[in-house]
Amino acid sequence: MALACLLACLSPVQAEPLQITLAVSEEGGVYRAFSETLLGKLQPDKYAVTIKRAEDALGGSDLYIAVGMKAATQLAAKDIPTLNVFVPKTGYDKLQREFASHDAPRSAIYLDQPMERQVALLLSALPGTRHVGVLYNTAPPELQSLRRLLAEKKTHLHEQAIDQAHPLNDALEGVLGESEVLFVLPDTDIYNASTIRNILLTSYRKQIPLVGISQAYVKAGALCAVYSTPEQVATQVLVMIERYAGSGKLPAAQYPNEFEVSVNIQVARSLDLRIKDADRLRDEIRGGP
After folding, report:
1. C-alpha–C-alpha distance, residues 252 and 123, integer Å
2. Of the given ranges (1-10, 33-42, 48-57, 167-176), which has the lowest mean pLDDT?
3. What's residue 140's pLDDT?
4. Structure confidence at residue 141 as a pLDDT band (50, 70, 90)
5. Which of 109, 129, 110 is nearest to 224 (CA)?
6. b/e for 138-177, b at 16 or more Cβ within 10 A?
7. pTM over 0.85
8. What is residue 8's predicted lDDT score, i.e. its pLDDT?
9. What is the CA radius of gyration of the chain?
10. Does pLDDT of 288 surpass 60?
């Protein structure tokens, strides 16, 4: 009897599963693909996952994952451990400033790609480019990095801010007149559902390719873009969850580790551009063969 009691005391105790709530900004699309992939990767004996809409009552959990900017904004005010995904860096940085007094662990995997990766795509897809145009509402923090990276490759950056003296259409015409390619920065005041069609058509008429920031841009008419799939983001999130489960800490906010390249071959042909295929561009950016 005493031996049985001793063995019972020495037996490992099964830890309770880590409670995780996924708060999604909306159903379907990349958010659904991400959620389903992550659920398939999380071992049910270690992690208990609940999926909620961002506006729902979230209940109690050990860790919350905000999927999209709407969910990130709503959860930021709650001072709970939160990992944000599919959020632009500028949006996450703004939330960090607004809720700097909160103590709960917070981190993010940005929706954006690092500037070095985007410039590598531009110069690999369009080697020999010497004049690049950008539009912005307010100069983003990444602009300095873009200037430096292009200057290192002897490429001139033509910048135009949108303001009362330079409305969007005038600014677009001006920058296209000086540039060989229009490089998209993640600025929703400029690039949004009501403006992107006109920007693409104007660029197309002037035979100027547009390098986008997502697969959706390429489908709409951009020449190419670098992006991360929901499955790639889910793999990176899994690593961060496992670290949190072991330490109670989240790694620092970060860019996506893995990525893909999308190319619009029809646009390339229409602009009489010879461009490498997506796999070769991706390998060149990664430094592969």
Report:
1. 29
2. 1-10
3. 87
4. confident
5. 129
6. eebebbeebeebbeeeebebbbbebeeebebeebbeebbe
7. yes
8. 45
9. 23
10. no
Strands 63-67 and 82-87, sheet pairing: parallel
Integer Cα distance of 160 and 5 in angstroms:
76
Please list, in sequence order, all residues whose beta carbon lies within 8 angstroms of the beta carbon of residue 51, skipping any fewer than 6 positions away.
21, 22, 24, 35
Q: What is the DSSP letter of 183?
A: E
Q: Report percent pLDDT > 70 for the chain.
A: 94
CA 153 to CA 162: how far, in whole Å?
27
Amino acid at site 96: Q
Q: Judging by DSSP bridges, how do beta strands 106-110 and 131-136 pair with one another?
A: unpaired
- Per-residue model confidence (pLDDT) at position 69: 95
Delineate the domains of the chain, giving CATH numbers in brackets.
Answer: 18-111+229-247 (3.40.50.360), 115-226+260-286 (3.40.50.2300)
User: How do beta strands 18-24 and 47-53 pair?
Assistant: parallel
DSSP state for residue 248 in the 8-state scheme: S
Give burial (CB, 10 Å; 0-12/13-18/19+) of 274: exposed
Residue corresponding to tokens 């005038």: 170
Measured between its terminal Cα atoms, the distance across the chain in Å is: 67
Strand pairing class (224-227; 260-263)? antiparallel
Residue type at 284 in one-letter notation = E
Q: CA dist 231 to 3, 173, 224, 260, Å?
A: 50, 38, 20, 11
Render pLDDT for 33-61 as a digit per residue (tens, 0 to 9): 999 999 999 999 999 999 998 888 788 89
The gap from C-alpha 43 to its chain's centroid, in whole angstroms, comes to: 26
DSSP-derived letter for residue 28 is S
**Higher-scoring residue by pLDDT: 131, 11:** 131
HSE on the CB side for 158, CA within 13 Å? 18
Residue positions counted in the chain: 289
